[in-house]
Recover the amino acids of this structure.
């Protein structure tokens, strides 16, 4: 995963994990250098980080490096103290979450079988919550039946695995086994810390970006929508635990891999994909109530949501196949436009909570226009944002009025991710 246009770390990550306590275990693997970047992401998001190292990991990176980046003493055999909480019991009690990255094949097999023959594994054995485990191993070692059996056992125990990548490995073999990218491990960890029972396993469709409407095969008309608000909404929903389908004209490379993303261009393609995705969403995700299994005779289905954040063209050009030759046009060209289909108005919204988005330039009439949209398109809520110099297309921040038929709630200017979290809180009530 490479960082793309969506992730402006200073804005997106700021305060995301404020006050969260994260223990990171590192084992003897060449992928250990990636853990430095992972810690940097956690620190940037406001989390507190402490590191515990296996003895073999010292051969790759010295504890001092991890102390410098985590801003905390690293737990090693040499530094372990029973006069403070810098010991394997104290670390396990302190942490909200424990991330093992990289997790060597040797460590994976030992964790699965309760073996604690080094300080890191002792800390793991003392930790009573789910682990985040990011394996890193040679392909043959990763695919070995013993390792695969251990990975399955860890999943049964409720631990969360961040699947490795398939690529050219440090040993010069090509195959699966390279540790996942730091950003993907970060997202998985953040999701475990930020999940919300209301959104867990709820199917949600999000549309984003400005549609592209072809004039001919080389030209098109579109708008200035960056798709960043839809990306932020999708990320917020993912972190709250939702099963997210993002339909967008502006795919970003730095979104979690688990967000199912469908790339489209035209409003027609977007409409087709939204209809198909909602049909799937209506079938529902079946999730167990948060009670003892014996007390849950049946499963419950959560109502799906649609967040229509895409900027769909109001008018589309009459399409000409091929390329219109400029020599045949003279000094001016007239493009004939026809009124486009209104996707939101024509969707079957039965059984779906539908949130529309409206961008306006005219602050005097924006609220009236948004309330008309709410009523005319039969929506549950509308998110209104007024475009201005400090709130322009493609900006990293936004401010929104969340409008229902009962009230208008003001969401103050903030990063689009933080605004999205507030939208999700209000959306639970409609």
């Amino acid at each position: 995963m490479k960082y793309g246009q969506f992730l402006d770390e200073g804005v997106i990550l700021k305060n995301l994990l404020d006050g969260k306590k994260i223990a990171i275990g590192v084992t003897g693997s060449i992928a250990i250098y990636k853990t430095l970047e992972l810690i940097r992401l956690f620190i940037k998001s406001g989390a507190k980080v402490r590191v515990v190292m296996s003895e073999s990991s010292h051969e790759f990176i010295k504890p001092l490096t991890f102390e410098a980046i985590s801003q905390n003493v690293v737990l090693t055999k040499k530094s372990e103290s029973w006069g403070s909480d810098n010991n394997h019991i104290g670390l396990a009690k302190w942490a909200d979450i424990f991330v093992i990255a990289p997790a060597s094949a040797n460590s994976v097999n030992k964790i699965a079988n309760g073996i604690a023959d080094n300080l890191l594994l002792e800390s793991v054995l003392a930790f009573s919550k789910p682990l985040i485990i990011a394996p890193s191993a040679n392909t043959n070692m990763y695919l070995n039946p013993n390792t695969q059996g251990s990975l399955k056992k860890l999943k049964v125990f409720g631990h969360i695995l961040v699947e490795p990548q398939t690529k050219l490995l440090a040993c010069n073999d090509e195959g699966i086994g390279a540790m996942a990218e730091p950003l993907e491990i970060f997202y998985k960890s953040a999701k475990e810390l930020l999940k919300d029972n209301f959104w867990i396993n709820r199917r949600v469709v999000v549309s984003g970006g400005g549609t592209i409407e072809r004039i001919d095969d080389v030209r098109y008309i579109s708008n200035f929508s960056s798709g960043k608000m839809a990306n932020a909404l999708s990320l917020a929903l993912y972190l709250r635990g939702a099963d997210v389908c993002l339909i967008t004209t502006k795919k970003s490379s730095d979104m979690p891999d688990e967000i199912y993303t469908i790339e489209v261009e035209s409003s027609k393609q977007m409409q087709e994909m939204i209809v198909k995705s909602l049909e799937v969403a209506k079938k529902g995700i079946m999730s167990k109530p948060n009670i003892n299994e014996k007390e849950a005779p049946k499963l419950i289905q959560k109502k799906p949501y649609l967040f229509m954040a895409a900027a769909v063209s109001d008018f589309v050009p009459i399409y000409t196949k091929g390329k219109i030759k400029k020599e045949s046009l003279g000094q001016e060209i007239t493009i004939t436009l026809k009124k486009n289909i209104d996707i939101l108005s024509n969707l079957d919204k039965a059984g779906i909570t539908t949130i529309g988005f409206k961008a306006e330039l005219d602050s005097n009439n924006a609220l009236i226009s948004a309330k008309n949209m709410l009523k005319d398109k039969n929506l549950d809520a509308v998110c209104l944002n007024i475009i201005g110099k400090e709130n322009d297309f493609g900006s990293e921040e936004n401010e929104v009025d969340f409008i229902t038929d009962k009230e208008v709630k003001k969401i103050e200017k903030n990063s689009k991710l933080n605004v999205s979290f507030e939208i999700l809180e209000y959306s639970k009530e409609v």
About this structure: Residues 267-283 form the longest helix (17 residues). The radius of gyration is 25 Å. Residues 197-427 form a domain with the Rossmann fold fold (CATH 3.40.50.10300).
